[in-house]
Specification:
28 strands; Immunoglobulin-like; 6-stranded antiparallel beta sheet; globular; Thrombin, subunit H; Pnp Oxidase, Chain A; 3 domains; mainly beta
Length: 420
């Protein structure tokens, strides 16, 4: 048996970076997984992104939206990533959506440097919310027919080899009214609707009153928009949302709990049954919009993602990849298109005309304060907002004036929320 002095000398001896058998086996396993990756039936080409790097489009009602299925990627803000889709079970005891898992290539980085496509995770998720990659990100997965669907990455499952991540499908587009001082902003975002585990009869009766007793849970990615959900100790003043099929009298819920730390990177909302109020709540069966507390103020709600239609036979609409722009961030690409009375795109007829871009914040002209650059096409422009934190949370209103043969066409206003 060696002496204590000899044992200490052996323990402190340099190993010249020698590896244990476990480390060698892990490297060999990673190598085999990489080499056989494309041969697996579970391997898929996916796209990963946060809410602000989603691909938005303007629907037939002029509302800016994103898709939960059937996406295409000819021109996308999302980042391509290789993953395996793993089905852990096909049934659930609580009758809720079963859990699925995602696994990345062993060589997939989980931390990013400036210049990487996913560098925004370091600043927007890890630094701000102490989240762990890839919690809080959306991922588009193709099914067996090649149709892509939106999923939310909700939790990591640590392992010595090949860690996995729990994912749940986006199954409801939530719409709500955000209060920001005197402003009220219409919001909409895809989320995961889950059943709250409860075996009640649906009716609660105490010594005096009886009322419905149903619960639900919503899971959204944590970001500068969803962090503004709230509830109070006064149950009658809690924030209300509509979670329902589209109908004249939809089901309304009040938020009774917000969970932002289990895990970090997600916003979990617990909802409790409330009642539809035809005097304050808004439903539009044609556009599919449903907002609780829409009419509870004299201030008309504004929507930074919804342009308004000018009274003209020819309309001009500005589009952007997202409805936000970062203060002191990179350039935002803007595109203006023109449409006739039949909603046919006639932009090419204005290729030789003059396009003049302007912008404002709170009715103050900011055209000369922002930085403009020419776009790739004649109807495109790039704009960069200076590093002025005093305007964070406000709306940058962008307009474009098109002049042809002494005929002037004013575009719809594109509202972009100023974020940090």
């Amino acid at each position: 048996m060696p002496s204590l002095q000899t044992a200490r000398r052996i323990a402190n001896a340099k190993t010249n970076n020698a590896k244990t058998l476990g480390q060698i086996y892990k490297e060999e396993s990673d190598f085999l997984m990489e080499e056989t990756w494309d041969n697996s039936i579970a391997s898929k080409t996916c796209y990963i992104y946060d809410h602000f790097h989603d691909d938005f489009f303007i629907d037939e009602h002029g509302i800016t939206r994103s898709l939960a299925e059937g996406m295409t990627y000819e021109n996308t803000n999302k980042t391509k990533i290789d993953a395996k889709f793993i089905i852990k079970s096909y049934q659930s005891m609580d009758k809720d959506q079963v859990e699925y898992y995602l696994m990345f290539r062993p060589s997939q980085p989980v931390r990013f440097n400036e210049g990487d496509d996913l560098y925004y995770y370091e600043t927007d998720f890890r630094k701000r919310y102490s989240a762990t990659f890839p919690i809080g990100l959306w991922v588009d997965l193709p099914d067996d027919r090649g149709v892509y669907h939106k999923w939310l990455i909700c939790r990591n499952e640590p392992a010595n080899q090949f860690p996995k991540y729990l994912i749940l499908p986006a199954n409801y587009e939530l719409m709500w009214v955000e209060k920001n001082n005197e402003k009220r902003i219409k919001r909409r975002m895809w989320c995961v609707l889950r059943q709250q585990m409860s075996y009640t009869s649906g009716v609660y009766v105490d010594r005096v009153f009886g009322h419905t007793d149903n619960q639900n849970k919503l899971i959204l990615p944590m970001n500068s928009i969803t962090e503004k959900f709230w509830y109070t100790d006064d149950d009658s003043k809690n924030m209300r949302v509509i979670v329902s099929a589209l109908m004249e009298n939809p089901t309304v819920w009040k938020i009774t709990k917000c969970e932002s730390a289990s895990p970090l990177g997600l916003q979990k909302l617990t909802l409790y049954t409330n009642f539809f109020n035809e005097h304050t709540d808004y439903v539009n069966l044609e556009t599919g919009e449903m907002y609780a507390n829409y009419f509870d103020s004299e201030i008309a709600p504004t929507d930074p993602s919804t342009p308004t239609t000018p009274p003209s036979s020819i309309t001009a609409r500005i589009s952007a990849s997202t409805s936000t722009i970062k203060v002191g961030g990179s350039y935002k690409n803007l595109t203006v298109n023109l449409f006739n009375d039949s909603n046919e795109d006639i932009t090419t007829e204005y290729a030789d005309t003059t396009f003049t871009w302007t912008c404002s914040v709170d009715n103050e002209d900011w055209t000369d304060k922002v930085i403009w650059r020419a776009g790739t096409e004649y109807n495109q422009k790039k704009v960069k907002f200076p590093n002025d934190s005093s305007v964070i949370g406000k709306i940058l209103s962008v307009k474009c004036k098109i002049v042809k043969d002494d005929l002037s066409i004013e575009s719809e206003i594109l509202p972009l929320e100023l974020t940090e």
